[in-house]
Amino acid sequence: MDLNNSDIPHVFLHTGDAFIGVKPTIVSTVLGSCVSISMFSSQLQQGAICHAFLPSRKEINPDKQVSIQICRYVDTAVDYLLECMTRIGANKSRLEVKIFGGSSGLTLSKVRAPNFFSVGDRNVKMAFKCLAEKGLHPKSMDVGGNVGRKILFATHTGDIWLKRLDKQTLLKNNLSPHD
Fold first, then answer.
1. What are the alphabetically sorted keywords of the record (predicted)?
2. Which end of the chain is more exposed for a tag (fewer CB within 10 A), N or C?
């Protein structure tokens, strides 16, 4: 499929946002330590995707107040995507789930934080934990490592195209490695 010459609309997914594709749409986003989780119903030919920034709302907001950006956190993003997909009629047991992102080493500075501060790794672990709690298991994934990723998600087919981005690619294209 030629995505550039398609009549299908394209949208860019920003940090903390989600997109629920009830009409065919190509959703793109750029990930560093953030994670994108997609859910797709082949029965409905509809999908949803999020761009989560931090592992858990409880780490930042222990009072459990509702955030303006519910998909800012992996734990609340999983709940939100699943709620949206079931609300439009998707069968939870037949959802195709995919996870991308969670880079741990992508930085343009020379200062490195210890591994226990690695937001990317914590984001990925939280995604697996939350999905498992809901009985969902990723069909495919590309997570971790020390490269960024640009992904394109077709909401009507569930297909995802991936491009890995190293530091030179980010600098050349004026992309930020910081989610």
1. Chemotaxis, Hydrolase
2. N
CA 76 to chain centre: 12
Which pairs count as long-range contacts for 53-59, CB under 8 Å and 24+ apart, including other chains?
A: 53/15, 53/16, 53/179, 54/119, 54/123, 55/119, 55/122, 55/123, 55/125, 55/126, 56/126
> 15 with 179: CB under 8 angstroms?
yes
Give this prediction's pTM.
0.84
User: Using alpha carbons only, what angle is made at residue 19 by residues 15 and 22, rounded to the nearest 5 degrees?
Assistant: 175
Could you give all domains of the chain from N- to C-terminal order, each with its CATH number? Answer: 10-172 (3.30.1330.200)
Q: For residues 173 and 30, what is the distance between their CA atoms, to the nearest angstrom?
A: 12
Position 110 confidence tier, pLDDT thresholds 50, 70, 90: very low
pLDDT at 62 exceeding the cut of 90: no
